[in-house]
């Protein structure tokens, strides 16, 4: 159990924010298996200030997702500050500034990882956010823009001096995106040099590895991203490969139901496909069964096919 500002976090391993992935149904499934707290997908502060309905829909959450962190991104201090005050009315527990998104359309306009190139501005943004709200403010960064500008110690120092309540460090540069390997020694350096809670992120493949990273680098916690897609059990000692098909299919159906509740039947099942593919990773089945599942647009048929004998002895691969 750790504390971010006034918020108590009941664990040390959580789901990382991921665009197009970490929506409410996915967060709830991960919390069910032990994820300590939740992040929304990142939301554009320009859209929030202009009251775009789509932006506010991304902040929908259920009580069981608390503590809930709303993540935002932007490149203009005044807009970010105003958006921070607006979303506090939606009662998140924490507000997080994305400083790690590596996509060109975000980073090249100075938002996301683009803020790593302007650490003094990032510090002023954090100061402005803190003045507008009475809840904790955090940020998620990368270790630098590229191999020649690994300025994670400078950035983390400026953010700490600006009053940030906690910091997550992804162990890659913006230039690396998701290639290569995360530099956990760099994450450990941040922890050694900062007094605020520090979370690490990058390449964690199991519950055991998560705890190993926490212990090795004396971190306050870690976030798991891509390896949690279709594997919510990663937040517990349960190993997916040891589960029966009945246990796996129960969670697939629960996740799909929640997607339908949030998005409607056809669109919910469409969005669920990227999760389903990951749930089925490591399993053996008739390929035509999988193809049929991925094309279904009606809930009753989805459930019938998922549980039918067409899967032909779905078994975990040793």
Automatic annotation (TrEMBL):
Entry annotated with the keyword tRNA processing: yes
Enzyme nomenclature, EC number: 1.3.1.-
NCBIfam families with a match to the protein in the record: nifR3_yhdG
Binding positions for FMN per the UniProt entry: 17-19, 71, 140, 170, 225-226
Cofactor(s) this protein requires: FMN
Family designation: Belongs to the dus family.
SUPFAM superfamilies from the UniProt entry: FMN-linked oxidoreductases
Protein name as annotated: tRNA-dihydrouridine synthase
Keyword Glycoprotein carried by entry: no
Catalytic activity annotation: a 5,6-dihydrouridine in tRNA + NAD(+) = a uridine in tRNA + NADH + H(+); a 5,6-dihydrouridine in tRNA + NADP(+) = a uridine in tRNA + NADPH + H(+)
Gene3D superfamilies cross-referenced by the UniProt entry: Aldolase class I, Putative flavin oxidoreducatase, domain 2
Enzyme class: oxidoreductase
Molecular function as annotated in GO: flavin adenine dinucleotide binding; tRNA binding; tRNA dihydrouridine synthase activity
Region forming the signal peptide: none
Active site positions, chain numbering: 101 (proton donor)
């Amino acid at each position: 159990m750790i504390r971010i500002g006034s918020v108590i976090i009941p664990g040390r391993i959580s789901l990382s924010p991921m665009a197009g992935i970490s929506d409410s149904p996915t967060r709830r499934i991960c919390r069910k298996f032990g994820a300590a707290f939740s992040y929304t997908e990142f939301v554009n502060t320009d859209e929030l200030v202009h009251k775009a309905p789509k932006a506010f829909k991304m902040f929908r959450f259920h009580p069981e997702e608390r503590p809930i962190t709303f993540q935002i991104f932007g490149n203009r201090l005044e807009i970010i500050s105003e958006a921070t005050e607006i979303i506090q009315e939606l009662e998140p527990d924490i507000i997080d500034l994305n400083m790690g998104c590596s996509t060109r359309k975000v980073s090249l306009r100075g938002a996301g990882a683009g803020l790593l190139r302007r650490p003094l501005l990032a510090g002023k943004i954090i100061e402005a956010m803190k003045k507008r709200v009475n809840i904790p403010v955090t940020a998620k960064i990368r270790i630098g823009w590229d191999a020649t500008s690994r300025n994670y110690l400078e950035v983390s120092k400026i953010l700490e001096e600006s009053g940030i309540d906690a910091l997550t460090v992804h162990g890659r540069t913006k230039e690396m995106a998701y290639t290569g390997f995360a530099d956990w020694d760099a994450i450990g350096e941040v922890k050694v040099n900062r007094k605020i809670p520090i979370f690490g992120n990058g390449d964690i493949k199991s519950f055991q590895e998560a705890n190993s990273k926490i212990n090795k680098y004396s971190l306050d916690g870690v976030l798991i991203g891509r390896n949690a897609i279709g594997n919510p059990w990663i937040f517990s000692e349960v190993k997916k490969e040891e589960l029966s098909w009945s246990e796996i299919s129960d969670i697939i159906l629960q996740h799909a139901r929640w997607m339908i509740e949030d998005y409607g039947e056809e669109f919910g099942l469409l969005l669920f496909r990227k999760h389903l593919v990951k749930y089925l990773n490591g399993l053996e089945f008739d390929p035509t069964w999988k193809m049929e599942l991925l094309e279904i647009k009606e809930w009753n048929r989805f459930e019938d096919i998922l549980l039918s004998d067409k899967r032909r002895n779905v078994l975990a691969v040793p």
